[in-house]
Amino acid sequence: MPKNKKPAGGRAQNFEPRYGKKTSYQDAKRRPGQASAGTTGSKSPKHRGFRAAEESAPAKGRWTEQDRAGRAEARGIRSNSRGDRGFDDRPRRDAEGERPRFDRAERPRFDRSGGAERPRFDRNERPARSFDDRPRRDDRTERPRFDRSDRPARSFDDRPRRDDRAERPRFDRSGGAERPRFDRNERPARSFDDRPRRDDRTERPRFDRNDRPARSFDDRPRRDDRTERPRFDRNDRPQRDDRPRRDDRTERPRFDRSERPARSFDDRPRRDDRTERPRFDRNDRPQRDDRPRRDDRPRRDERANRSDWQAAEKSKAHQDHVDVVHERLQAEAVDAASVEQASFSDLGLGQNIVRTLEGLGATSPFPIQAATVRPILDGRDVLARGRTGSGKTIAFGAPLVERVLRGQAGKRRAWGRSPQALILAPTRELALQIDRTVQELAQSVGLFTTQVYGGVPQGRQVGALKKGVDIVIGTPGRIEDLEKQGKLDLSEVGIVVLDEADHMSELGFLEPMQRILRLVQDDAQKLLFSATLDREVAALVDEFLVNPAVYEVAGETQETSTIDHRVLVIDHRDKAEILTSLVDRDGKTLVFTRTRAYSEMLVEQFEDAGIAAVALHGDLNQAKRTRNLQRLTDGKVNVLVATDVAARGIHVDDIDLVVQADAPDEYKTYTHRSGRTGRAGRAGTVVTLITRQRRRRMTEMLERAEIDAPFDEARAGDDVLEEITGRQAANVDA
DNA sequence: AAAAAAT
Questions:
Q1: Is the CB of A509 under 7 A from strand B?
Q2: In order along chain A (734 residues), what is the average pLDDT of each group of 10 residues?
Q3: Which nucleotides on chain B have any atom < 7 A from a protein Cβ?
Q4: Pairing between strand A549-553 and A382-385?
Q5: Known PANTHER family for this protein (predicted)?
Q6: Which of A218, A528, A546, A582 is the most exposed place for a label (fewest CB within 10 A)?
Q7: What is the spatial distance between Cα A327 and Cα A471, in angstroms, rounded to a whole number?
Q8: Using the CA of A509, which nucleotide's C1' is the nearest one?
């Protein structure tokens, strides 16, 4: 029996204890009457959401008398899904009549101030909600009233839009209702996750009060446990070997000898068989190798039976799979200069969308956008390769919204309508990020989006889908899950986007993608985007795309990039110290590790050195993942240590240093990790740490990535580290 | 190895 007993099928490491710990934390740390997301009327003060009988009883009586009827009328369908404010059509519609009046009178002044005020409102509202959930719920029924007063402020930004709407009859209907909605949607977007949010909110206050301590306690003990476990194991084993084990060992053989004989009769013949079997296996293997199908099977058998074979074959198989260089797709190279003069408007996008793009900072199209918008509007299947940070999200998002809008022209947006478009991403963070952009575009023309991804309760997502959304953005697992449950109808989806399409075509993603693509309309338009788009997408292209247009942007080479690449050849014993000195700087630094465990270890190491750092990897719960990424975005920490979950697509402004604590195995991974810096033309540095043994592999990988990077030998404290971090050497001397 | 569903 191994020393570390783990439940069968359990994960090797779990940094977010999901079972007992969560419930005990809920019971132990929650105080009666404290903000809670629990249902009202929980039985005991120790339960979340407990409310004393006296509070609710009298109020309940009143409601049943008169208010109920009035409320029901006022709230309408809303009562079916209290949590989803963003989708409350009726309050909004009721408010619409009033809004225009207010808006017209006030718009000019508020336009300027409006933008600045929104954040303030959000902040004010959140605390209010976070103090008491129950009052919040009451507030929610009242909120429409507050919202009406608030909306004017919010809607002022919309006024230009509304003017636009006046130009477009279609937009007016949807637009007038939407923009206020948009404001709400921003909140709603948040509000879609009302329940999770409420959970978050209720958790946050807890954390804030107890929390930061609470969190730090949870983290440190865990980290301590983790760090201690290996240490103890290592220390204990030798010690035990020296003292007790030797005794045990001398004793055990004796016992074994006395016991085994009885058993050994059966065993020996078996052992003979076993010794023969490997021989046969070895003889058979060449035979099997001859048969094409069995090529893989002997490997698996070997792995199961023999650890040495396992190691050898595994690394061989690993290398077989790793870093396959696929043929470049034949693409029409779009010359940036030739399309530079076209505006978004010229490309066929409507005024509302163009205006929203301006608000997002996209005043004129980037090359990849100039290339793809028109063919997408024309309804073609499109494959597009644009390097990291080149604006791919808008390149597919804006024309997608425009097409969904055109497809709905003249139709009424019905309750519970099925989504018309689907955007798929490989990670939850990326899905969220895409939604932030696409949702704004959609809102500007009165369309709704919702996110469908795992790691959060389904309720809010299902509630949104029930009310009807136009564009679904999510990750494959939850989308399939909800579809199987009959809660997500993909049969009317006419446009599908695969972001990071080559990654979505890799083992593990390919089959879910195929299943999902088979559920949408047969003739649905397909859009495949990635910075490293190659023939790996062939499996999907051949089955699902019709005569696709393929685009890339001419002249995207390292020379036109703003990223400076460095490789440091180090001794393994210097690694920890070098990493600490690399992240000990002012700018935002993103550190990549190969494993979740190492990312946790590095966070602990940095914090021990007095450098605030957070982790991002798949063993954290979604709330923590989102929070930790947000803390980097907000600048509350400057160091994020992540696995490859953060390698693709994630945009954080101002990351000016990417450190690869573990070198990537694939050139594509190198490309995507590097692309977290140097975005939209900003400068950035990528540093990869390797040991001497890895020089050759690294050189080959950089060739495939078409990157030229100097290799420097570095030891702890070397000047080259100061040069990279931008610190002055004087600081080091002191 | 990691990621993507939940249990």
A1: yes
A2: 37 39 35 38 44 38 38 32 33 36 37 36 37 36 37 35 37 35 36 36 35 34 37 36 37 36 33 33 32 32 34 40 60 60 93 96 94 96 92 96 92 90 97 96 96 96 96 97 96 97 95 96 96 92 94 82 93 94 94 96 96 96 96 96 96 94 95 92 92 95 94 88 71 38
A3: 1-6
A4: parallel
A5: ATP-DEPENDENT RNA HELICASE RHLE, ATP-DEPENDENT RNA HELICASE RHLE-RELATED
A6: A546
A7: 33
A8: B4
Residues A296 and A279 in one domain: no
DSSP string, A22-52: HHHHHHHHPPTTS---SPTTBSSTTSTTB--
Question: What is the predicted pLDDT for the residue at A564?
Answer: 93
Cβ(A464)–Cβ(A499) below 8 Å: no
pLDDT of A560 reads: 76
- Together in a domain, A422 and A546: yes
A660 & A594 share domain: yes
Nucleic strand B contact set for A 393-452 (CB, < 7 Å): 426-429
Domain range for A369 is 332-553
Tally of domains within chain A: 5
pLDDT of residue A133: 34
CA of A401 to C1' of B5 (A): 28
Instruction: Answer whether residue A2 is part of any domain.
Output: no
Q: Is A453 near strand B, with its CB below 7 A from some atom of it?
A: yes
Helix H, strand E, coil C: the string for A96-160 is HHHHHHHHHHHHHHHHHHHHHHHHHHHHHHHHHHHHCHHHHHHHHHHHHHHHHHHHHHHHCCHHH
The partner residues of A687 in beta bridges, in order of sequence, read A566, A659
| A645 CB inside 7 Å of strand B | yes
